[in-house]
């Protein structure tokens, strides 16, 4: 086999992804250990991901400001996470550190929206419509620039144009020693690191209809699972309805208020049954479908009348359009501890690559807060470990050379895998009534068996994380259960 792979300069902390989680991790790593060799790799140089390139152009952050707000946040977030896997200590960390992390953003000149008196304007959030604990961060490209400037001014190395393909791990449960990455021209490099932080965002971008920000591979979960990290909550996506043509969010509750009408195949209006209308009451309090919540009956009813891709015909006033249930963000990821470490030595995860602070559902704004809090925790812990621990040098080139897929590149296969995964997820992965996970698993497993390209393999592995999570998760209409410490682990 031809092994023609170059090696990047070794670093203490390698951060995969330049979204909010990745840049917060880099900043915290450099603050904790000045002079540490911290490298951030990302496919594109500018603002990317759902953090900095999201279609709304703003991010809500959940920032409880006092003890009462922190207590309410923990209670609501923990209850909402059911029946997923939630760790109360991780939820508490969000509540405790959100304000401090938000102040750090302000020190970079990133002020949340203010009220008339100049105070950060407290906003309601999805699933918590009566609270005023969220603040809104606008001008996301400016936020990217400010964080990027800070990371580079602290000595961090930003390496755009590189996409991570797989994590390189010693055999027999050993440590992760960095990653295999690829540049625009298809050249491959091994990126050696003492500690690696996965901050590549979630799986939403794999769906045919999705709202994920641009520039993501969508396969971070696949890389983590392939490296042996425990994954949980991977079936719990945030789903929202959008206009399939414009990709604009569409408020599905208008069906319940009578402002919109659902149409069947023949164009006839479909009346909402009384029990669905009753269950849908209060849906205006949150945009995403709520796993285990009564009002998901509305989404299921619309899906019952949608086509194979989840597209339903809607009339609003004079306008008729097609609404589709789109993947918005992932609540699942690698199971992390309070420092952001996964159960794999040398491997941390943050942002949409990590879970445990969210479960089946999450409070609006809690994901951006999780990027700040656990990005910072992971960066700090990784830098300190890299400094303190005597990590023996590993043969990272040997690891890459022994991985057959690391040495093969087949862009046609990668493109075809992306197309097939998008189709399979959209047709078989939506949270329909009585959805059987087996057909999706079977389609993805046949793609897995055929994957020779490392990107295709990680992509299919990411979709399998979702499908395997779905196979062991309670159905979308199951009621909330007790918080569990036993994750539905999918690796
Ligand atoms: C439209 C929209 C609005 C949202 N609004 C809110 C909100 O108001 N509040 C909230 O809390 N959450 C919100 N979310 C969710 C939230 O924005 C994301 O969950 C969060 O920003 C994810 O941050 P991240 O750093 O984990 O990933 P991302 O921001 O997605 O960044 C991932 C980074 O990894 C890079 N990357 C991907 N693959 C690879 C690879 N293979 N190798 C190297 N780099 C890679 C990407 O290019 C990018 O730089 C919203 C999501 C969407 C889509």
Characterization of the model:
It is a single chain. The protein is built from 14 helices and 18 strands. The protein has 491 residues and is of the alpha/beta class. It has three domains: 6-236 and 331-401, FAD/NAD(P)-binding domain; 238-328, no CATH class; 409-472, no CATH class. Strands 1, 2, 3, 6, 7, 8, 9 and 17 form an eight-stranded mixed sheet that branches. It binds flavin-adenine dinucleotide. Flavin-adenine dinucleotide (FAD) is lined by residues 16-22, 41-44, 48-51, 54-56, 59-60, 163-164, 199-201, 211-213, 215-217, 219-220, 328-329, 351-352, 365-368, 371. Residues 16-22, 41-44, 48-51, 54-56, 59-60, 163-164, 199-201, 211-213, 215-217, 219-220, 328-329, 351-352, 365-368, 371 line the site of flavin-adenine dinucleotide. Residues 1-31 form the signal peptide. Keywords: FAD, Flavoprotein, Oxidoreductase, Pyridine nucleotide biosynthesis, Signal. It catalyses: L-aspartate + O2 = iminosuccinate + H2O2. Belongs to the FAD-dependent oxidoreductase 2 family. NadB subfamily.
Task: Provide the fold topology.
Elements: E1 6-7, E2 11-16, H1 20-32, E3 38-42, H2 49-52, E4 58-62, H3 67-81, H4 88-107, E5 134-138, H5 140-153, E6 157-160, E7 163-169, E8 176-182, E9 188-198, H6 220-226, E10 231-232, E11 237-243, H7 254-257, E12 261-263, E13 269-270, H8 274-279, H9 296-304, E14 311-316, E15 319-330, E16 333-335, E17 347-349, E18 354-355, H10 366-388, H11 396-401, H12 411-428, H13 437-450, H14 454-472
Parallel strand pairs: 1-9, 2-3, 2-9, 3-6, 9-17, 16-18
Antiparallel strand pairs: 4-5, 7-8, 8-9, 10-16, 11-15, 12-13, 12-14, 14-15
Helix pairs in contact: 1-5, 1-10, 3-4, 4-10, 6-14, 12-13, 12-14, 13-14
The structure holds flavin-adenine dinucleotide.
